[in-house]
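Dear V.,

Thank you for sending over the compound details. I've combined the ligand you provided, pyridoxal-5'-phosphate, with the protein sequence from our construct and run the structure prediction for the complex. I'm sharing the raw inputs here so there's no ambiguity about protonation or stereochemistry in the SMILES, which I know was a concern on your side last time.
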Amino acid sequence: MAVKVLLNEDEIPRQWYNLAADLPSPLQPPLGPDGKPIGPEDLAPVFPMNLIEQEVSRERWIDIPEEILEILYRWRPSPLRRAVYLEKALNTPARIYYKDEGVSPPGSHKPNTAVAQAWYNKQFGIERITTETGAGQWGSALAFACAILGLKCKVYMVRISFDQKPFRKLMMNVWGAECVASPSMNTQAGRDVLAKHPDTPGSLGIAISEAIEDAVSDRSGKTRYSLGSVLNHVMLHQTIIGLEAKKQLAKIGEKKVDVVIGCAGGGSNFAGLAFPFVADKINGARIEIIPVEPSSCPTLTRAPFTYDHGDVAKMTPLLAMHTLGHEFVSPPIHAGGLRYHGMSPLVSQAVVEGLLTPRSMDQLHCYESALFWARTEGYIPAPETSHAIAAVIEEAKKAREEGKEKVILFNWSGHGLMDLSGYANYMEGKLVDYPLPEEELQESLRSLEGLPKAPIVKTGRW
Ligand SMILES: *Cc1c(COP(=O)(O)O)cnc(C)c1O
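Below is the predicted structure of the protein with pyridoxal-5'-phosphate bound, written out as structure tokens.
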């Protein structure tokens, strides 16, 4: 029985898929501080224009430059694996497939966009890139991409992860990047937060403020900022995952997928796998598409769809998205990559439209699922990925109860070999569930007061 489906280099997809071209209800435009839609030139101090063009593009297919593919060949096309050992252990009639994004040098899906972003920055004449990182996967992915392309890289790492995950920082250093704990004394945004909350664990929102401030205050004009998730061009770069998966499923003779699952922090690994299947759903296919988030950071399942800033210092434009409020500081759960207050506007609009059915998971259930996976399939997943696995196991059990031969596809967004301290805490019984208390949610949503409301536009077809 085939348990892995590989593609050759010459079978790699040569275009990215842009869901913005096909969403039945339009994306709401980003707004400036005055509440008016912003134009590409407003983003120019922060991002290079070639990436801004992708951010606002409504073209369905965008060519992947040959030089980017040359770099991606190091690990792409990534394997599509079938989780036969898990299927057997669960005694399910479902066939479970997953894209293994853990095979990239930094160990997650993130270099798919890091390489593309670094390449476009270099094309535009940029010499240095700043960014934030939560668990450290994004920082290490961008550090890797900058090393390959010969760019300087500075990473602001959320303090709690900086302390919990020293090895991610060391990976960045190996790839030649500088990494500081955020909030830091390097920026006004960081100094402001530290003055008010000297013991803060930090947050992605704070780290983003610092990284943007660093980029826009470089007078030489040779520094830009890079974001690892949330934005349209990031979702775009990740669609290579789902496009490869389609070719691989066809190669192994699967005609139809019933369930598509990915964990969702800012939405990029989920979108990367799911968007090509969302296109099928828009065109009439019956597929259940499930983003999975932590119950401690329930952006899609409990937070409103409205305009909000991407960062605490309000340096980013207002984006129409599901958001817990830009001042949200997540409880320190171990899935650091799933702690962001907002969600990709593309993913959010697809949820509004009813194309996706989000689900939330408690931390302990995720670790239990991750151990079950590791003890059957063998690979140790990232704590983020364990959220997808928990949903996959639920769906596989449901298929067993219904006696249905479903095809379940999910994104194995990364390995957990740098996250073993989280596993240690779980196995020692030190972790607890922390579904976000309603009062804390309401408190956090208060930072949305006074911001424009995003219109809820949907066709009602799903
Ligand atoms: C960063 C990360 C995530 C969450 O980010 P998305 O943009 O939602 O994909 C999930 N899994 C892994 C392994 C990550 O590194």
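A first observation: The first strand starts at residue 4 and ends at 5.

Warm regards,
I. M.
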